[in-house]
């Protein structure tokens, strides 16, 4: 990895023309892997005669300008040697990148729309607070949260990636609170190159194939230059394992059904922990094929053919006939019959297929003025299983006259004088798992001009562009039930003629077919078609982004210590979206698509929808526009032999949002190249913003009934979940202080940097619970009162709108370290160069204050169930010759805890509280992963490579908790195991 601590050679933005193209990309297979070498020779100091450079962390173009904002650069060599089918994975390994998504993240989700989306997150602040650009230009988001999908980028032509680890809103606008990731493409690529790669895990899954092609050529004495690339990549993912613990998918053993057993607070006066960290957790509210969960028959399970048997609860548990189990803590026992455990029924990694076509055409009107256009057409498809079957946690009622019940159970009902019982099942005999299949299609067109001119005795450069981006996202969910139909179908009776039908005459007349969920039996084809229509939940989202931008930079005057450099620009942007969902999820409205495909059904809620087991999408739309202008200046302070060289960098931006009003951002920083050999100091402080995104502003309304306590009275209200157009921008204050040592004469080849950062974000947009909003209104918060009606003369008109508000705050603090050494091995009588490099991020604080009465600030630093460990380190050691490169890489995540708010104790525990629970174990081990790769230059045109990631096949640390999925945390850990890759690159 090549970190340029003083200056970034970054190309100015480029721009393109709206043009309809179709993509035709071929699949290629090859050999697996690649060598990962992050260490590159440090960039030399620029000479006065060097070309003007543009800094990604700044808009200034100036000779020799050293920017104050730390920026890490990955070159094309870095990217190639890491040998990933998606460039996203390479970038996400950087220590400052925390909380990024990817193919292994959110695989347990049905409705989020984020599955398979490759979105980058800096500092654990979330992808929506990290601005991701191509050639300094914005990219149409792939989700209504405003995040971009790196999988849709043209990756073979990426010349370098600049990662700005500091606020950059004054230079680039909204969303840059965490920083900026800027992909710089090779706009003048000439020749032909290709990459063919294959890979798979040691478990023979997640097989992946990648084919990338690029061609470039100049015409008309190179005044016209054309670049074209096509890419195809397919990752099979790791599919759901199904029910039970052992073995895991394809023989993996990491999963052991982790969970927290949680006692009621009222029971914690006995000196024992409230929470227990357990393995082999057995839910006692359901099993694989059906379990009676309450009453005199509690503990009766059903197996093959519906045969009843006594369920083994584990923990020596004995059912109490009231829904509880002695020796167990709701809802888990430990051990026992684990065949119904569904925790590992989530895809370990989503399948992912990406196709990308990209072209750029440029024409030089004169040597100093160029017109250009770019077109990027991409499609990314993914697939995941959020869970097997459709578990029902003791929330079903089975009538004793149900003809699917064995005669022995019907007799037992009569003997115990009951007519029904509570029941739970994992529905493991459904023939297919739930399948979530997002498809994202991007069309991005840019047209623009850039160049330079002389005015008032000095040289100026400019760039301007217009971009039109359209992203279509289709979500398809298959093999999922309609809840009202499921409830009707499992309630069966036998008619006098002996036929079995649904009990409800209304349901029967609308096509209900009885469904047998008593044991492992073959389901009726008609019943499955009734409860699980082939056309499941669907959603189509069309998201557009229009951007017009003009930027100019130059050096208007010479001062005592060098030229004054300035940059200025204007930008207009409009974001819009519309989403249309299926009628069963949305409810039937005049604009419901495909309503004819969803026949009317009296059992379903045709007004508010939400009929599916999961995946209840709703219609919505919205848009906003942004107008802004900025000015940035670099002022040289002094340049003397006695003091060294220093400059001051300032920037200001004024922004007007059509929904959120006006916002101002600024930056103040400086660098000082001291007289100490190789030593430079830098500092920057900035005010940054993130405007509310389309989802936060315009989320469609979803209505359910609920109850609240209002001034001591329990009220039934409509719970309306909806966006909030009154949201204000989040406002951040970032400060960074750094020390840089670059190849001093006393240690040639050695470089190091240390940067301390502190980020404070106010007016953070967050969501409250129903009762929390009412409590805040009762406490006098008028903005909350405006979101509800609680005193209507018609009680059914009472409502509470669950909206996001500007309530919370964030505080982050930590530091980044980088060291590297590069030297020749000639003194040892060996050929080539040896490079050692290490990058580390230490998070001191990551504190969220919800801003709600009764809550406390939450410290997330070191919580390894989340995304911000105390330490994240990436280190490499590389040996390079003219033909061979061998690299060993270490990726390390430090030990952590489940929560910094937990009190760990095994006996003599204090009384637990909602804010500070007690727990018997609050430790979560970190991990170290080793990657080994090599490249061999077969000829001047062909390079072969191979790589093994996670060389020791280190398992992920167990991660109990509801929001990690699979009992593992892919945000921090490698959950796939050892991965082999090999391939060949061609260059002509």
List the helices and strands and how they pair.
Blueprint: E1 53-54, E2 61-62, E3 71-75, H1 76-82, H2 87-92, E4 130-134, E5 137-138, E6 158-164, H3 169-172, E7 179-185, E8 191-201, E9 208-219, E10 224-235, E11 259-262, E12 275-278, E13 281-283, E14 291-292, E15 300-302, E16 308-310, E17 318-319, E18 325-326, E19 332-334, E20 351-366, E21 369-383, E22 392-399, H4 407-415, E23 420-425, E24 435-455, E25 458-478, H5 483-490, E26 492-494, E27 500-502, H6 505-509, H7 525-531, E28 538-559, E29 562-581, H8 583-586, E30 620-640, E31 644-657, E32 661-673, E33 679-690, H9 694-698, E34 702-710, E35 713-721, E36 730-742, E37 750-767, H10 770-778, H11 782-785, E38 788-789, E39 799-802, E40 804-824, E41 833-849, E42 858-859, E43 871-880, E44 884-893, E45 903-904, E46 918-919, E47 927-937, E48 942-949, E49 979-987
């Amino acid at each position: 990895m090549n970190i340029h601590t003083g200056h970034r050679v970054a190309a100015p933005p480029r721009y393109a023309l709206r043009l309809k193209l179709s993509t035709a990309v071929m699949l290629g297979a090859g050999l697996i892997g690649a060598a990962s070498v992050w260490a590159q020779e440090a960039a030399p100091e620029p000479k006065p005669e060097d070309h003007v450079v543009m800094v990604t962390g700044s808009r200034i173009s100036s000779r020799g300008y050293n920017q104050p904002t730390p920026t890490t650069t990955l070159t094309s060599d870095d990217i190639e040697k890491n040998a990933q089918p998606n460039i996203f994975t390479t970038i996400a390994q950087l220590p400052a990148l925390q909380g990024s998504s990817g193919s292994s993240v959110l695989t347990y989700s049905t409705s989020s729309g984020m599955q398979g989306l490759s979105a980058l997150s800096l500092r654990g602040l979330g992808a929506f607070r990290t601005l991701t650009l191509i050639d300094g230009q914005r990219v149409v988001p792939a989700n209504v949260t405003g995040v971009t999908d790196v999988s849709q980028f043209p990756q073979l032509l990426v010349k370098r990636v600049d990662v700005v680890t500091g606020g950059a809103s004054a230079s680039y606008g909204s969303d840059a609170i965490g920083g900026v990731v800027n992909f710089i493409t090779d706009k003048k690529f000439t020749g032909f190159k290709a990459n063919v790669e294959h890979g798979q895990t040691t478990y023979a899954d997640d097989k992946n194939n990648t084919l990338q092609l690029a061609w470039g050529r100049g015409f008309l004495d190179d005044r016209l230059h054309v670049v074209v690339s096509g890419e195809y990549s397919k990752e099979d993912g790791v599919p759901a394992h199904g029910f039970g613990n052992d073995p895991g998918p394809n023989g993996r053993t990491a999963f052991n059904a982790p969970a927290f057993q949680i006692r009621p607070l009222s029971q914690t006066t006995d000196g024992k922990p409230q929470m227990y960290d357990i393995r082999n957790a057995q839910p006692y509210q359901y099993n694989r094929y059906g379990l009676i969960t309450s009453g005199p028959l509690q503990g009766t399970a059903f197996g093959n053919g519906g045969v009843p048997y006594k369920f083994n609860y584990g923990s020596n548990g004995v059912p109490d006939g009231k829904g509880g189990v002695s020796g167990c803590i709701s809802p888990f026992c430990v051990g026992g019959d684990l065949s119904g455990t569904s925790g590992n029924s989530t895809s370990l990694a989503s399948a992912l297929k990406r196709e990308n076509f990209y072209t750029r055409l440029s024409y030089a009107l004169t040597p100093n003025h160029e017109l250009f256009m770019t077109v990027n057409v991409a499609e990314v498809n993914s697939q995941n299983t959020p869970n097997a079957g459709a578990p029902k946690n003791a929330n079903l009622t089975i009538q004793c006259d149900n003809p699917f019940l064995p005669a022995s159970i019907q007799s037992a009902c009569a003997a115990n004088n009951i007519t029904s019982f509570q029941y739970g099942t994992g529905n493991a005999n459904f023939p297919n798992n739930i399948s979530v299949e997002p498809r994202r299609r991007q069309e991005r067109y840019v047209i623009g001009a850039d160049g330079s001119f002389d005015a008032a005795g000095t040289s100026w450069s400019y760039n301007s562009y217009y971009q039109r981006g359209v992203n279509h996202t289709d979500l398809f969910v298959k093999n999922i039930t309609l809840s009202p139909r499921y409830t009707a179908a499992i309630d069966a009776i036998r008619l006098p003629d002996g036929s079995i039908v649904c009990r409800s005459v209304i349901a029967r007349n609308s096509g209900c077919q009885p469904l047998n969920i008593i044991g492992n039996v073959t389901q009726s084809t008609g019943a499955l078609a009734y409860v699980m229509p082939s056309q499941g939940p669907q959603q189509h989202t069309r998201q557009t982004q229009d951007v017009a931008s003009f930027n100019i930079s130059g050096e208007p005057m010479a001062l005592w210590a060098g030229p004054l450099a300035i940059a200025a620009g204007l930008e207009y942007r409009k974001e819009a979206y519309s989403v249309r969902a299926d009628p069963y999820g949305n409810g039937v409205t005049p604009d419901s698509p495909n309503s004819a495909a969803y026949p009317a059904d009296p059992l379903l809620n045709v007004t508010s929808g939400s009929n599916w087991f999961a995946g209840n999408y709703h219609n919505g739309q919205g848009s906003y526009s942004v107008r802004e202008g900025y000015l940035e200046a670099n002022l040289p302070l002094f340049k003397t032999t006695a003091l060294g060289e220093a400059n001051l960098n300032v920037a200001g931006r004024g922004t007007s949002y059509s929904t959120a009003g006006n916002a101002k951002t600024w930056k103040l920083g400086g660098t000082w190249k001291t007289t100490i050999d190789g030593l430079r100091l830098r500092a920057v402080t900035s005010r940054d913003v993130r405007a509310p995104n389309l989802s936060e502003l315009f989320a469609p309304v979803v209505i359910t009934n609920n109850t609240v306590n209002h001034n001591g009275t329990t009220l039934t209200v409509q719970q309306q979940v909806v966006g909030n157009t009154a949201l204000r921008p989040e406002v951040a204050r970032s400060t960074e202080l750094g020390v840089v040592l670059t190849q001093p004469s006393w240690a040639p080849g050695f470089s190091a940097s240390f940067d301390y950062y502190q980020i404070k974000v106010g007016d953070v947009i967050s969501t409250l619970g129903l009762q929390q909003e009412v409590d805040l209104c009762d406490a006098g918060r008028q903005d909350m009162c405006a979101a509800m009606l609680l005193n209507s003369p018609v009680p059914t008109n009472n409502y509470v709108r669950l909206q996001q508000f500007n309530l919370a705050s964030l505080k982050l603090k930590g530091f980044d370290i980088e060291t590297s050494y590069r030297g020749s091995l000639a003194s040892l009588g060996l050929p080539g160069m040896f490079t050692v490099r290490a990058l580390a991020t230490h998070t001191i604080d990551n504190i969220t204050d919800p801003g709600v009465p009764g809550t406390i600030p939450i410290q997330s630093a070191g919580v390894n169930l989340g995304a911000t460990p105390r330490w994240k380190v990436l280190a490499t050691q590389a040996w390079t010759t003219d033909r061979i490169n061998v690299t060993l890489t270490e990726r390390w995540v430090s030990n952590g805890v489940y929560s910094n708010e937990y009190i760990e104790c095994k006996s003599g525990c204090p009384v637990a509280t909602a804010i500070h629970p007690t727990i018997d174990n609050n430790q979560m081990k970190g991990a170290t992963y080793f990657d080994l790769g090599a490249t061999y230059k077969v000829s001047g045109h062909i390079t072969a490579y191979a790589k093994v990631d996670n060389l020791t096949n280190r398992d992920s640390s167990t991660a109990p908790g509801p929001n990690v999925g699979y009992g593992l945390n892919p945000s921090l850990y490698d959950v796939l195991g050892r991965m082999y890759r090999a391939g060949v690159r061609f260059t002509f």
